[in-house]
What does this fold into?
Amino acid sequence: MQQGQPSISARQLAILVIYFIMGDMQLFLPSLTAEFAEEAAWLSGLIGLPIGLGMAWFIYSLSKHFPDMTLIEINNQAFGKLAGSLVSLLFLAMMFNTSITQIREIGDFVTTQILIETPIIMICLLMIFPLAIAIHGGIRAVGRAGETIFPLFVLVFVLLLLLLLPSLKPTELLPIWGAGVSGIMKGSLFFVGFPFCELFAFLMIFPNVVQSKHRARDYMLGVLIGGLAIWVMVLLCLLVLGTYITQHSFYSPYIMSKKINIGNFVQRMEAIFAISFIITAYFRSLIYGYAFVLGVSRLFKLRDFRILTVPFAFMALGYSYMVTPGIVFLNTLAVPWVLWILTYSPGLLLLGWGLAKLRGKLPMKETAD
Amino acid sequence: MNASVDKRLDRKLMSNLSFIRASFGNSQDLVIKEMNNDNGLQAALVYMDGLTDSTVIHHVILDYFMSEEQTASRKSGNRLLYLKNAVLAVGETVTISEWDPLFYQLLSGWAVLLLADSPDAICVAAEGWKDRNVSEPTSQVVVRGPMEAFTENIATNRALIRRKIKDPQLWTEGMEIGKITKTSVSIMYLRNVADEKIVEEVRKRLGEINIDGILESGYIEELIQDTALTPFATIYNTERPDTIAAGLLEGRVAILVDGTPFVLLVPALFIQFFQSAEDYYQRADISTLLRILRFIAFMITLLAPSLYIAITTFHQEMLPTSLLINLAAQREGVPFPAFIEALAMELTFEILREAGVRMPKTVGQAVSIVGTLVIGQAAVDAGIVSAAMVIIVSITAISSFVIPATSMSISVRMIRFVLMGLAASFGLFGILLGYILLVLHLNSLQSFGIPYMQSFSPFIWSNQKDTLFRLPWTKMRTRAVATAEKNLVRQRPRNKQKI
It folds into this structure.
């Protein structure tokens, strides 16, 4: 990318990574992993975390093999012009789909749990408004907004954890092995697939991150913190609610936050969790949405991606309404969805990397960092 | 009127004088004193009544007549030079031969001495008008710190700053803005600290102003700000010389405007509006706590009414049962939904506050009695609002006064109503949405090329010593990265002495 491009700092990148990994996962991951691993869902997390870190490192090193290239250019380089464009289209479809799914998840969550009589399209509209504004502002706006909101987010999240401490019941983790090794492995598939493999969206952002010696460290730190946060979420859900409720409710962390009760005075603090969830899901949607809009403008060689924000907002509104008939249907898609992700990342990414290597099109050997 | 329409002065004294008279339309405050003597030496002194110092005027006349013997013997050109250099030892004198600058000097309070047979006039600095004394600041009060404020006189204001920073590197540039008012405007900056790009940007934006009149620094502020589409001020204004001096030391640029005690400071950052001059005079721990307190007050002003609306309308379960029953009992007789109730009370309070600022001092007591009764006891007794709502409105109001900068507290007052509307429609979700939009907006703002939220985003670790916290002076060794570009070191590490 040329000089003078808007850029974000390594710190902002790390914060965005934390938001991205937590995203909607802090709401759905506990029930997904517990469904297969049962009492051992926290063990799936523990196994998934290092694999996820490795995955995140693979995606980062890919961007170092192709310096200053976004995913679109990487595809062109690896697969050739025509096939590369087709692969890029596949990636873009996924980015758009996942971005809007986040919005829809917020809409479903708000209309079923908080504002029951509000039409879902209104909630989606209200979320798409700041989404479009932030995308229009470019990566700099996204990075800065993330950095500014971060203190509030940390406060809310830590407060949630602290308030839950008195409600923990360690016996809920027994038996340790839960559903056995295969169950634990299946559970960790979700733990790796949704939060970490999807980090490929950052391939659209890496070229805009200021070069500094902290870049790799901050990125991996963000991945680690985000991963630990969702792992803690899984663990807490099991400890507070037990396996059965965690498995069988869509919004188990939300139900968990209802259990907060300190001295019969501080209670029913689920709004705290709702704030934390909406912030992270919004940023996940934002990062995907930005990656999509930038990707389309790169693919079709548009001079400025900003002309796409208004069409994107309208498409997002319509798509968020029709993407799923409801949260129940969405939840049945979890298994195919995670496999879908794995075909893209690492699947297609590895294929591209291998092809580039075979064809001798790797622009640069990996340098020591 | 037979004086030439030429821009230059005529040789004939009489035609010059009649041109001046005609130009001013025989204004009453234009004084033309013609002076003749037996030697045939003719002259006229022209000045504006009220703008000039009478002792200087008398001095000029006296000197002129005292020197008539010597001057009479000289030729006209030399005579003028002799008068200017040797006789009129009053202070600043300028020789002018064109009408426009002559009128400008005349209207700035200078006296103009016209001689017969001379195409030049001598202008003598004789400004002297009634000025307000340097008095205590009224809008930005401190308990400890300098008790002087700027006045309406730009020369006094410049002097007040110079008295604090005695360094030749404190540079001043002057200009006249306003086609009719010709208001003098100065920019001041520390040459070896301020960022030359920002100084150049200030010069450029001031130079682009093309308006008939500037009456207050608010004109300049609106004409040079980065964007008008924001409720937030991106230029800081203050009437305290010490705040300006501190800003100059941080590498900012001050813009002084004649005729107003409010001096502008650019670039302005969001956090600056929460910092008071006193923070640097009190002990560091006290100042830090006070700053955090102000930030909490800011949050209360922004969020208290909307949180109350959201919780009582949508999220009653968040309240402990006893408190909920208490609130419900209070609201039992109230005929309005919480939003209308809050809106009415907040509007009432805004009206009272505006009345308090505008009303003549003599009726103040009457209004405050009515205000207290309306907003307080009577409204609750009549069952129109609940007592809890009065508490919320009061704490909101008091908190808004904690913010040291008026421009920021006005912005917060405006945004509060938007958040109340969002809370009434979508509860906490609406407030969160409003918060995200607010953050996006704040991050899109710039002040003279510096991001408005700098120190927070982009986060600058070394600036945190003087952002929300205020570390002891011994720890503040460098200037804020935001504004100062060079000469970052403020103090050398002190020699550690064993005591």
The first strand of chain A starts at residue 261 and ends at 262. The interface with chain B takes residues 9, 11-12, 110, 114-115, 118, 123, 126-127, 129-130, 133-134, 137, 141, 143-145, 147-149, 152, 264-265, 267-269, 271, 274-275, 278-279, 282 of chain A (CB under 8 Å). The CA atoms of residues 2 and 309 of chain A lie 22 Å apart. The beta strands of chain A are 261-262, 266-267.
